[in-house]
Amino acid sequence: MSYFSSTKDNPAINNVVMLLVRIFVAVAMIILHGLPKLEKFMAGGEIKFYNFMGIGASSTLILAILLELICAFLIMIGLFTRAASLVLMIVMAVAAFGVHYSDPFSVKESSLLFLSLFALIFSFGPRQFSIDSMISRRRESRW
């Protein structure tokens, strides 16, 4: 019972929880955002998508697809985790405050939740069970 009332954390539990959070968030990003956009692009026809910074709707869609799929995969395996989460934080901020700026909160909710989860991953890093951690340990060993 002392664990629930203590302010100390357990590194082993933190490592496992961050691994599960990274995997869940990455899979959710791929399934809920990346793949539907890819299907929309592959279907052909007229592309109706947000025109970010005037680069065109189709260019913005391709950029969003690539960033959401590649960065989510990198977060899942724990490689370049902070950089990938920063990129996806920007993508979700554009989605929440650019694309859906006039929509009700219920529409923005998904983007804002992903934004907060990527901010969490960015802040705490990938932890022990990641390729970033393996690379870091390898550099420290000077082997």
Order of helices and strands: HHHHHH
Shape: globular
Mean pLDDT: 92
Q: Mind describing the biggest β-sheet?
A: none
Question: What does this entry look like structurally?
Answer:
By secondary structure, the protein is mainly alpha-helical. The chain is 75% helix and 0% strand. It is built from six helices and no strands. α2 (11-42) runs antiparallel to α3 (57-77). The longest helix is centred in the N-terminal third of the chain and has 32 residues, at 11-42. The chain is globular and about 55 Å long. The protein starts with a helix and ends with a helix.
Would you kindly provide a brief summary of this structure?
Helix content is 75%, strand content 0%. The protein is built from six helices and no strands. 24% of the residues are buried.
Layout of helices and strands:
Elements: H1 2-5, H2 11-42, H3 57-77, H4 81-99, H5 105-124, H6 131-141
Which tags fit this structure?
globular, single chain, mainly alpha, 143 residues
